[in-house]
Amino acid sequence: MPNYLQSKYNTKRAFTPRKPVKTFRDLDIYQKTLECSVIVVKDIRPKLVLLKYPFTDGMTDCAMNIPLSIGEAHSIRFGDFALGMSLIEKAMSGCNKMIIYLEHTKGMYGDKVDGSLIDDIISRYAESRTKTFHLELSWKKWNGVERPGADIAGSVKPNFGRIKL
User: pTM above the 0.70 mark?
Assistant: First the structure.
């Protein structure tokens, strides 16, 4: 019987460093959200137009705004860090909005839309939102701005021991 470390962790994996980011196009979150926006416009939008979904334009605009915000934030953060961070926040909220749009269409039309495709895109947007948050944290760390007391999910831990009245 193998011990705990041998059974849980594979230690024989080779270390592969990440590809350096030179432009915003090298960012994984940009590539993934752009793929999602193409799928939304190419595969989902035509079906929703036929079904006369009332939020089709909002969904397609939101899908395109996410990679646009990521690309813009990557450049602006050097000149105006606060604006760059607000654009990253906008991209994260855009991911959440797209999940809401997609779940709404799935709930309204059920079998009339491809549920497995929508579920796949929802999971991609959820993963992109998490990766965008981690990118935001790394940019803040690189810039010397850290959120004190923030845990891995970004929520601030309660600080009961230091309450001053």
Answer: yes
* Tokens of residue 141, six digits: 């760390």
Residuewise pLDDT in 10s, the chain (165 residues): 555 445 555 556 676 666 776 777 878 899 999 999 999 999 999 999 999 999 999 999 999 999 999 999 988 888 888 999 999 999 999 999 999 999 999 999 988 998 899 999 999 999 999 999 998 998 888 777 655 555 555 555 555 555 554
Q: Which domains does the chain have, with CATH numbers?
A: 23-145 (1.20.1440.60)
CB 35 within 8 A of CB 78: no
Q: Where are the alpha helices (DSSP H) in 21-109?
A: 28-39, 45-50, 56-79, 81-109
